[in-house]
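Holo prediction. Input below; ligand is flavin mononucleotide.
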Amino acid sequence: MNEVLKALHFRHACKKFDPNRQIPVDDLLAILECGRISPSSFGMEPWKFVVVQDRTLREKLRKACWNQMQVTDASEVVVILARPEDVKPDSDFVKYKFSRRNLDPDAEKAYLARYRNHLETEIEPIMSYYAWTSKQCYIALANMLTAAAATGIDSCPIEGFHKKEVEEVLEIDGKQFEVAVVFTLGYRAGEQSPQLRSDASEVIEYR
Ligand SMILES: Cc1cc2nc3c(=O)[nH]c(=O)nc-3n(C[C@H](O)[C@H](O)[C@H](O)COP(=O)(O)O)c2cc1C
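Structure of the complex:
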């Protein structure tokens, strides 16, 4: 089996972590790096990864996350923030992201116009900027979960939280950042439950 498939078979949403095992710092950094270099629409990187290590904060975070024990028992917990305001076409953030491509001024202007048009015609009519940026945060999430699994590290994605409470605990400036999703990293305590998946014939179609 190829290495990626092996990692994906290893990965489970780990419900019970060994509270006494820490993941090596180098592994944590490598996992975060896989998030950092993830792809994003127009290269906007509309995310921030907050590694919550303070024990008191983690206790509070657990309460905001449906009291899920993974939040305190796993070695690490990471909160992925989306940047819905920053990706709006007139922002300095967008201008900076385009400027680093070193395009000639006309090309940059045309690219920015295409960006604006895409957002106005395809994104705004069907979803919020929070939804659009969060979708991209989930790509980074998936890469980090797979990266963890490839090094034998367990994880749990967590969407079971009260968004406002998580933002209060972390004193997130809701104008610039909003919580997209949370995940934990560590080592399993005991066996994982079997992976339940639909057959390929149900979820893959060729035309
Ligand atoms: C976006 C997302 C949010 C999730 N939130 C939670 C959660 O809050 N708590 C939890 O225990 N599992 C959570 N899960 C794990 C799923 O329940 C799990 O991935 C699914 O049941 C399949 O099981 P497996 O990942 O172990 O194969 C979440 C998964 C995803 C992708």
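The two ends are 27 Å apart (CA to CA). That is the main takeaway for now.
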